[in-house]
Amino acid sequence: MRRLLGVELTRFRWRRAILVLLLLAIVVPAVIAASRIWATRPVSQADLDRATEMASSEIQQCLDHPRRYGVPRAAAQTQCETTIVGWYTGREPLSMAGERGGSGIGVVAVLTTLLLLAGTTFVGHDWNSGSMSNQLLFESRRGRVWAAKALAVTLVSLVLAALVSAVYWLTIWAAMQVRDLPTLDGALTDSMAYGLRGALFAAAAALGGYALTMLLRSTVATVGVLFGVSVAGGIVIAVVGLSGRWQPDLNIAAIVDNGTTYWVEVPESCFIGDRAEREPAPGSECDQRRDLSAWEGIGYYGVPLVATAGASVASFRRRDVP
Amino acid sequence: MSDLVIETSGLRKEFRSRRGVRIAVHDLDLAVPAGGVHGFLGPNGSGKTTTIRMLLGLAHATAGTMRLFGEPVPRRLPAVIDRIGAVVENPKFAPHFTGRQNLTLLARTIGASADRVEEAVATVGLTGRDGDRYKSYSLGMKQRLAIAATLLKRPALLILDEPTNGLDPAGIREIRDTIRQLGESGVTVLLSSHILAEVQQVCTSATIIGNGRLLASGRVEDLLGTSTAYRVGVPDPAAARAVLDGAGFTLRDGSDLLVETDRPAAVTEALGNAGVWLCELTPVRPDLETVFLELTAGDQLGGAA
Asked: Least packed by Cβ within 10 Å: which of A181, B74, B230, B249?
């Protein structure tokens, strides 16, 4: 098995299309990190001067009609400029928690998409070229072949995604240190754990892409099916009106954030009489807030993944190989 | 243990589709003895490749049993696959990898050394081109690479499906010589080919199938039969025909004057006595092509290749 795994890792390494996808999985998060560091840079005196110049007419209007801008007339002279220039230079300072809720999920999405494509492309090429049959002439135990390829895809994806995530969060943390921004205790550890969960999710997606391609025997068919499922799934969720519990993005957030919260509609009676006055008990009929645990998210994606992998193995073992 | 390297009994393969069931291999009993080169002949769609694919575990049999080296397959295929080299239909390799990369991956799968790759490349004459991408290879080079892949295992059984497809005459000769040498060295070769002259030259035994059924099997000499005819060349064929007919010889219909006999001297004597002088008296032995065409005359293109 170790020998087969070595062969599959070599095959993975020699595929140019795979290398391009893996390179993108490094470059795109790097670009996201750079853009976030740039977008949250401290406001310089030059920025303030430029904003003051750009907003000069608006500052004048504020001075003429301070109440329109929510500024007391007595303080107009000092507050108008501060308020309006603040609008033009308003930048959220960099924070680990803020990035976890924003760009962090973007990095997970990028890694997931690219590694899923890598898993699909890796084995789609074997089917497309017909070389799968040649491989089986050298190792006829199909279960082993399936497992070795799956292991190679998952391992490479996990290692790469974990490294990229780690570097991403270390970069954000280092930028905060350079800017002397305060960091909460355990912020880096939490972000690293977030990154690791994201990496595990991306590796699972790569495994899913691989398993589906082994089932359908075509990269194009796999991408088509995934696209169709995402479109049709979105339509079904919208038409049937399923709650946030069934939203794909919310379940991803639940996994990588180790649980998340969503809001649901409650009966109108909750807003009438005494019930409107009281704070609803957590989880009660009138509580709009719902928690979605990481395990529920894992179940949401894990069940189709296990089903696809099972069907893929069974199909590969039973069907004729062209 | 049986001295048969390949043995099938009642082997059957059905393909089901919306248009119904198509039987590609019909209760085939195949027996290939150890050693030598065994021809596996049949028209297009007769089920040769499907049979080979079932033997190698690439396709599942609908019914019947198969044995390789006495081991039941596909159940025990992993135990014998290391002793089997095979080229099935067209060579199939990763097009963006070089020939060497393709061979290296296969060699590593079975734990063969890099030297073995070197040796196989040299044996099939690909040295110097093994660093080129597979997709840039001519059909002949692809065939050579496929044969090189089979040699990585040092096989005891070699299954070759149309191995000379796309090769130039020199290449065909090289491969034919290689096959013959392998057969003589104790390797059992199952050679599926349409080039009957090639099969007749290198094979010691052969099986002929048509529409997935066994039509004939045995030593090539036995398949050709012992019947011998002689082509008679004379200035006046009509006169000669009358003389030989009158002397009790069996004559074959056709434009040539063919007489069936095992006594060519008697033909010479009869014609000479009648004053008909011979220009030619040539033995005409049946060849594999004739036997093949006679056996498969009723077959139509159809089943799986």
From this structure: A181
